[in-house]
Amino acid sequence: MPETVDGVPLWLLKITVLALGAAFGSFANVLVHRVPLGQSIVRPASRCPCCGASIRWHDNVPILGWIWLGGKCRDCRAAISIRYPLVELVMAVLSLACLYLAVMRSGGMADVAGLAPLWAFPFAFCFLLVTLTFIDLQHWRIPHVFTVTGAAIGLASALLISTFSGVDWKDSLIGLVVGALPVVIIIEVYFRLTRREGMGYGDVMLLGMIGATLGVQSLPFVFLASSVQGLLVAVPMVLIARRSPQPPWEADQDPSQPHASGLRHAAVPFGPFLSVAAMQWLFFQDLLAPWFIP
Ligand SMILES: [Zn+2]
User: Fold this and answer.
1) Ligand 1 center to 108 CA (angstroms)
2) What is the pLDDT of residue 258?
3) Does 187 or 124 have the greater pLDDT score?
4) What is the pLDDT of residue 239?
5) Of the four listed, 43, 118, 169, 197, which is most buried by Cβ atoms within 10 Å?
6) How far is the CA of 46 from the centre of ligand 1 (A)?
7) How confident is the model at residue 207 (pLDDT cuts 50, 70, 90)?
8) pLDDT average, residue stretch 263-277
9) Whole-angstrom Cα distance, residue 161 to residue 36?
């Protein structure tokens, strides 16, 4: 890593992207909370979901605000979910990782203005993945607005920074289609066999977005890693709980039916695993590619 970029010390860039990442994490929290409810994301300003008091600007500092409030609302003392500082911290770390990626990809040649898009495109990708992951964990669905935006940004990055990312417009377009198609088939086959929805069309769109951004070459790894890591989490969950967590769309089924249990009925939202696998490829593709691309 170079000491300075275009005369700007690297430590200053690191602090800047950390702060930017945490601020975007704050925005991600707003999206996670409001988009599934269909609320405006600009108005009103942040409020305590419990008592409705507006949050003071000095308590609204990412990560630190939660810490000095001791995780409680200043007005009603209701607990504030650990999800808020967690999302902010994750986004700050990913933002820093995107800076490393940008510096590596530029080969130390770019100035600050040249680094900006190399940071911004992967960061936008991570931002959308983290946001839709937390929505999927809570609501078991992925709003199409995030995946469609993500696919558009992926195509744009293939047109603008392909010399640095190694994903050109053909990889991107083929990735968009090839990513989405197999999942449509899996959904249909799984549904015929079990009469249950294992994955939804949110996952289809998400794979399209991942294919459009990381290119068709990323898909073998993303398919494999998300399935394996998904099983590694789902199997112990089912064994410990002795019954599968119930997806919300089955909650209003006939209550006289005994709740199905066992692996065949295991269900976890799949979006988070696709997102994690996509980020693993984004940051570690140099290590992974020899194993997954013939
Ligand atoms: Zn409150």
Assistant:
1) 48
2) 45
3) 124
4) 78
5) 118
6) 11
7) very high
8) 78
9) 32
Mapped to the 3 state alphabet, what secondary structure does 209-272 carry?
HHHHHHCHHHHHHHHHHHHHHHHHHHHHHHHHHCCCCCCHHHCCCCCCCCCCCCHHHCCCCCHH
Q: How far is the CA of 109 from the centre of ligand 1 (A)?
A: 50
CA 90–ligand 1 middle distance (angstroms): 25
pLDDT of residue 251: 55
The answer to whether 47 and 54 are in contact (CB under 8 A) is yes
Please, are residues 80 and 66 in contact by the beta-carbon 8 Å criterion? yes
Spacing, Cα 56 to ligand 1 middle (Å): 12
- Closest Cα partner for 100 from 124, 121, 118? 118
Q: What value does the mean pLDDT take over residues 193-221?
A: 88
The mean pLDDT of 212-239, rounded to a whole number, is 91
Tokens representing residue 157 in the block: 């990055």
State the Cα–Cα distance between residues 4 and 2, nearest whole angstrom. 6
Q: Tell me the pTM.
A: 0.87
Closest CA to 79 of 111, 50, 106: 50
Residues with beta carbon < 5 A to ion ligand 1? 48, 50-51, 73, 75-76, 78
> Three-state DSSP class for 93?
helix
Q: Cα dist. 79→26, 90, 199, 227 in Å?
A: 17, 21, 33, 35
- Give the integer Cα–Cα distance in Å for 135 and 122: 20
